[in-house]
Every structure is written in C-alpha cells, then in structure tokens.
Design brief:
- This protein is of the alpha/beta class and about 270 residues long.
- It folds into two domains: about 60 residues, N-terminal domain of TfIIb (Single Sheet); about 190 residues, P-loop containing nucleotide triphosphate hydrolases (Rossmann fold), CATH 3.40.50.
- About 45% of the residues lie in helices and about 20% in strands.
- It is built from nine helices and ten strands.
- The strands form three sheets. A five-stranded parallel sheet has the order 7-8-6-9-10, with helices on both faces.
- A hairpin with a 4-residue loop joins strand 1 and strand 2.
Length: about 270
C-alpha cells in the first residue's frame, strides 16, 4: 500500500516540468526529494536524475495530525528559570498562598512522568531526541491534568513549561523552530514567572544540595540559560504574560509578589 508521503512524491514528479541541468547541458526530467518540516510544510527539491544536483526548490503544505488546545476557563501559571533558582520551593509556596486565598489550584511539574526524568538523566541522548521526549511528556501532562483542571475553572501552577524546553534544548544545539514545531498544539502558559538569579549563586546552591550535577547544572550552562531566559519575554510576549522575579529574595516575599500579579490578571 502506497504511503501518503510516497504518493505525494510520485504526484509531484508527474507534475514536474523539464528543468535545465548545467552539468548535462540540457533540460532533464527531474526526480524529487521531499524534506518534511515540523510546522506543516515540506521542502521539495528537484534534482537532476544523472548528477543528483539540486535544480530548484519550493515549499508545499503537508498534512499533519491536528492538535488543538481547547479554550479553557482557568488560569495556567508557570514557574521557569535556571536550575538552582528555587522554582519548586517558590511554586509550592505560591500554591499554598493561592489556596489560603480561596482558589482551587492544581500543582504540576515537568517532566511529569518519573520514568522519563530518570531516562533523560541516566542516558546521554541527542538533543533533538530530548525535544521529542519532553514534548511527549508535556502533551500527556496537559491532556490528562492541565487542560481538564483549566476547563473546570481551576488555577494550574506548573513547575517548568515549554519555555524551559526552548531555552535548554536551544543551548544543546536545536533550532527554536524545531522545538516549537514538535510542541505544536501545546497550550502555552497564561502567566509566566521567571525566577532570575546569578548563575554562580545558583551553581553554589546546587553543589550544596546535590551529590552530583547533571549536564543542565554546569556553571557554563547556567550562565547561558539565564541569558536566554531573560530574552524569552521579548520573543513570546504575544503568547504569555511574563514577570521576572529576583530569586535571591526570600521565597515568601516572592510568592506574595506573584500572588498580587495573579490577582491583577483574574
């Protein structure tokens, strides 16, 4: 049975007009090579059948499975920032304050599935493969917990979000477009609190609380991650509302600041 992808290739080759090949010195009937992207398009390359050189290129639409995020009633809040910034402590303190204020709140954490986190920290896998694994975990988390909670009107506080993937996997050498493409259909947070802290301070915190550090916790990685996190609000201001908080402050003070910001957005 012919796959849809092979069928598309055959159809394009049938439609293809003669193209001039400078190596052959004449017009030839090209063969086609398809290079799918992750944003719903495919790059079509027309090649000389003899010399295999590219004679022309074009972009065509390609059908991909639809992943649509339903409009939700609640508020999706994420806490992002470099390792050692105190995200988990802050997120839990914020959840406590929100509940004391009468809000129904769900606390979640990425990665969501423990086995995925263990796998990623145990094996040194390629950065692009990491993108797929994190995206899979995120989609499962959103479909099973985040979206249902939002639809019921709850607030969701997430320890990390897609923005951490954008920062971390970018540092590992993956294009942002690729990361966003794999995460197509993922719901972006409504409000993002980026906990900002000096990389050396975060690094020293980690050394005191860890038996060993991961590839995401080296000083050089933390410095680059902090730089990229501070660039995120400018790039994605149309998708989420960002607040940068000084993570060197007392966590209770920070959580009260965040609570005030959340109330301003409800």
């Amino acid at each position: 049975m012919t796959s849809p992808f092979l069928f598309l290739k055959e159809e394009i080759e049938k439609e293809a007009q003669l193209m001039f090949c400078y190596k052959c010195g004449k017009s030839v009937k090209p063969i086609v090579r398809l290079l799918p992207t992750l944003i719903g398009t495919v790059e079509v390359e027309y090649l000389c059948p003899v010399h295999k050189i590219v004679l022309a290129k074009e972009i065509r639409e390609m059908k991909l499975p639809k992943r649509e995020v339903k409009v939700a009633k609640g508020l999706y809040i994420s806490v992002d920032g470099i390792d050692g910034a105190g995200k988990t402590t802050f997120a839990k303190e914020l959840v406590k304050l929100l509940k004391m204020d009468g809000f129904e709140v769900l606390y979640v954490k990425e990665p969501h599935i423990p086995a995925i986190k263990e796998f990623l920290y145990k094996y040194d896998i390629d950065a692009d493969a990491e993108v797929y694994i994190f995206a899979t975990d995120r989609i499962i988390l959103q479909k099973t917990a985040v979206i249902p909670a939002l639809e019921s009107g709850k607030l969701v506080v997430s320890d990390r979000s897609i923005y951490t993937s954008i920062v971390y996997q970018s540092i590992r050498g993956v294009d942002e477009e690729f990361i966003i493409g794999v995460n197509r259909g993922v719901k972006y947070p409504d409000i993002v609190f980026i906990l900002d802290i000096d990389a050396e301070l975060a690094y020293n915190r980690l050394k005191k609380t860890r038996d060993s550090l991961t590839k995401y916790e080296s000083l050089d990685f933390l410095k680059e991650a902090r730089k990229l996190f501070l660039e995120i609000p400018k790039k994605y201001s149309k998708l989420s509302k960002f607040y940068i908080l000084d993570a060197s402050k007392d966590v209770k003070t920070l959580a009260k600041e965040a609570l005030t910001k959340i109330k301003e957005n409800i």
